[in-house]
Amino acid sequence: xxxxxxxxxxxxxxxxxxxxxxxxxxxxxxxxxxxxxxxxxxxxxxxxxxxxxxxxxxxxxxxxxxxxxxxxxxxxxxxxxxxxxxxxxxxxxxxxxxxxxxxxxxxxxxxxxxxxxxxxxxxxxxxxxxxxxxxxxxxxxxxxxxxxxxxxxxxxxxxxxxxxxxxxxxxxxxxxxxxxxxxxxxxxxxxxxxxxxxxxxxxxxxxxxxxxxxxxxxxxxxxxxxxxxxxxxxxxxxxxxxxxxxxxxxxxx
Length: 253
Ligand code: PEP
Fold this sequence. Notes:
Elements: E1 6-10, H1 20-30, E2 37-41, H2 44-53, E3 58-61, H3 78-84, E4 88-91, H4 94-99, H5 104-116, E5 120-125, H6 129-133, H7 137-148, E6 159-163, H8 177-195, H9 197-200, E7 204-208, H10 213-220, E8 227-230, H11 237-249
The structure holds phosphoenolpyruvate.
């Protein structure tokens, strides 16, 4: 990892106010591991409270509406997220692509709204097991990304990409470091083409899919892995911090 590793916890639809003690513990401990940049994305209902707790860690959201404030019952705009204290938003997560049939076009519109509201973006991509077994993983992921990458000038400065093979999310299975390195290299090639090499180098590519304290060190020292997007293991401060420690102790960090 050449740049400061970015370790992001995605709490998904987990967490009531009782979870604030975990956020506090993560925040206090993260101050000792400054070599890593640490952030969490709690559910909407906790963003403001986690933001108030957090002195060190970044706070973000897991989705936003693709447009401005207005008559959209039940939706949350990027402006509202920024007002609640969010600094970034995760977009294009495979659970949203599947559960809510989100398309690359919709995700691109969400990205543009979020950038306009001043948020940073974590754009997720990843293939199904079917695509991987058919030898189509790289082609699929690059097409997915090419169709949703923001075209706005300066967007790359606020962009992070997260490669998350769907079959590795919440399953306990992780991709091999060889497969991760190959996919991250391919993604870097696409970013180089889209933004030019110098700007592309600013975009971190995270890996996500059953990252835990036990496998974090190996994954985080894989070429082109700039950090991790962590689901299950981010729900307890102890396991999440195990990953943060691995990131901050990693040789290149
Ligand atoms: C995720 O959903 O972003 C994720 C990586 O989940 P898990 O770590 O639980 O596989």
